Prior knowledge:
Belongs to the class-I pyridoxal-phosphate-dependent aminotransferase family. Transaminase involved in tyrosine breakdown. Converts tyrosine to p-hydroxyphenylpyruvate. Its EC number is 2.6.1.5. Residues 58-418 form the Aminotransferase class I/classII large domain. By secondary structure, this protein is α/β, with parallel strands linked by helices. It has two domains: 41-65 and 321-430, Aspartate Aminotransferase, domain 1 (Alpha-Beta Complex), CATH 3.90.1150; 77-318, Type I PLP-dependent aspartate aminotransferase-like (Major domain) (Aspartate Aminotransferase, domain 2, 3-Layer(aba) Sandwich). Helices cover 43% and strands 14% of the residues. It has helices spanning 2-17, 33-37, 41-48, 77-89, 102-111, 129-140, 156-162, 183-188, 212-225, 287-297, 305-317, 320-342, 373-384, 408-425, 429-454; strands spanning 60-61, 123-126, 146-151, 167-174, 180-181, 194-200, 229-232, 257-262, 275-280, 347-350, 357-362, 386-387, 389-390, 399-403. The strands form three sheets. The protein has an eight-stranded mixed β-sheet, with helices on both faces. Strands 10-11-14-13 form a four-stranded antiparallel β-sheet. A two-stranded parallel sheet has the order 1-12. β6, α9 (212-225) and β7 (229-232) form a beta-alpha-beta unit. α5 runs parallel beside α11 (305-317), α6 packs across α7 (156-162) and α12 runs parallel beside α14. The longest helix has 26 residues, at 429-454. The radius of gyration is 27 Å and the shape is globular. It starts with a helix and ends with a helix.
Amino acid sequence: MKDLVDLPATLHQLNNQRPIKSKRNRWNVAISEFARLTHNPIRAIVEGLNIQPNPSKPLIALSIGDPTTFGNLKPSQETVDAVRQALEDGSGNGYAPANGHLEAREAVARYVQHQGPVTAADVILCSGCSSALDLCISVLGGPGRNMLVPKPGFSIYRTLAEGFGIECRTYDLLPERNWEADLVQLEQLIDEQTCAMVVTNPGNPCGSVFPRAHLEAIVDIAERHFVPIIADEIYEHFVFPGQEFHAVSTLSQRVPVLSCGGLTKRFLVPGWRMGWIIVHDRDGVFGEVRRGLANLSVRILGSNTLVQRALPAILDNTPNDFFDDLVATLHRHAELAYKGIKQIRGLNPIMPGGAMYMMVGIDVEHFPEFETDLRFVEALVAEQSVFCLPGQCFEYPNYFRLVLTVPEEMIVEAVKRLEEFCEQHYKLDNDLLLQQQNGLLNQMTQLLEIKLYVQ
């Protein structure tokens, strides 16, 4: 018994005899390289803006990509009832397999049959579509690799990639071609270290919907160079009349595709964080990728289990009328914004084919007092209390993006204020010439005064 009592003292003595390797004499807690390299370009730009709305006018925020912000767009009753049932019966209170409950994955497999043959084994449930993209980029990329992403494009791709030391190479989307990709440039960007090509369709921030022939051309490039595709299709089916959505995975039997989707936008529940990856393998090319995705899934031990339990009822029972009404509303808002802004001097809107955004070009030469789109946006907020995201948030200067999910009366008012702002600041070519001449005259006068003073 005495030996046991003396054991702690003995251990203490032994520890005191061991050499101490640490030379620390102060706190110095460093962050990881992964954390240091990770950043959100949009947040960095927006936080640097001087946003001071006009106090005499209520703010109209056309900047927020959350369709639920203003309360005018709500999820279907079937969606709400499905979650209520899962909550009341308690079936979603516990953990789920890392890749998701089987019944939920089977429901997703049924829902995405338009993408080609899919089984539950091909589905991985994630915490929103951004989580799906994170897993796809994580499993394919790494230090020294590069990934092709669209420009203008959603900043999350860069945010997720750069932490891993993955270089983002941007391929241009061409406004004069309704935001189709520059295929020549796209192919020239590929080298031996290219790990993936991101294809966003329908697109954010452009609202672009690629024709089938254009998508086939993109897929052909991927096939020629053996580059897998990450298909960001969170806005699938968000297409306006005259447009048609084509899943990338249906266009080739040789190019492997990781398709990312979810409930977020189409079902109007972004806060529920339910997304998924669909693995479209080709001849076993993605065998190791499947195992890698399974490994990565355990990092968060699966997505929201309450929503997982509700997922079969949500996907099976939500009526098509709900989706049709939502698309009709967004199309009406897009036409209203486009027709109104088209009449404003100095602005060039590009009519979207789908999704929930519109890009508007700024004729910067006619707004000489604003050096960049950032200054244009700042002044627009200060004078008219209308806030749109500047194009630099999407690596595309001299544009701004507006969202189409706000109430219709807010779009009408925003267009009215945009017109008032532009009419106040727009300069004709003659005005610009006169302004330049006056500036030159002022410079000459100052030089002359300096010369006389020196003499």
